[in-house]
Design goal:
Subcellular location: Cell membrane
Structural class: mainly alpha
InterPro entries: DoxX (IPR032808), DoxX-like_oxidoreductase (IPR051907)
Distance between the termini: 39 Å
Protein name: DoxX family protein
Order of helices and strands: HHHHHHH
Organism: Anaeromyxobacter oryzae
Radius of gyration: 17 Å
Pfam families: DoxX
Helix content: over 70%
Length: about 140
């Protein structure tokens, strides 16, 4: 990676890789919400049940499903990603941190990682492959 041409070509991909990070993160994140709300792609509750929407896991499922969908397509990326970052921080500190300090042991590594990736997306935006970018070009 010492070739200046190679480095500059690789850096040119940076905005597009931001969009790929946003899309893949949102796709994976949405699965937590759809599992809670629709038991799809699989049930996370006993007997294949879904969570009540008017419960804390239900609200989380709504945020994960519909907020994740907005981030997936890159619409209102910054405010939605900020909201989801906060959701994941709360999930970590309420659901995981009481079970010990180490995220790998308290099962909180995904929540912590999602929190920081969404925080980054809230600062950086959705990238060139997003509806936000398309809306910006049309104005």
């Amino acid at each position: 990676m010492n070739d200046p041409g190679l480095v500059s070509r690789w850096r040119a991909w940076s905005p597009y890789l931001l969009s790929v990070l946003r899309i893949v993160t949102a796709f994976l994140f949405m699965q937590y919400g759809t599992a809670k709300l629709f038991a799809f792609p699989g049930a996370i509750m006993p007997n294949g049940a879904t969570v009540p929407v008017a419960s804390l896991p239900g609200v989380a499922g709504v945020l994960e499903t519909f907020g994740g969908a907005l981030v997936l397509v890159g619409l209102f990326t910054r405010p939605v990603a900020f909201l989801l970052s906060g959701e994941m921080a709360v999930a970590y500190f309420i659901g995981h941190a009481p079970h010990g300090f180490w995220p790998v042991l308290n099962q909180g590594a995904p929540a912590a990682l999602y929190s920081f990736v969404f925080l980054y997306l809230s600062a950086e935006g959705g990238g060139p492959w997003s509806l936000d970018a398309l809306r910006g070009r049309s104005r």
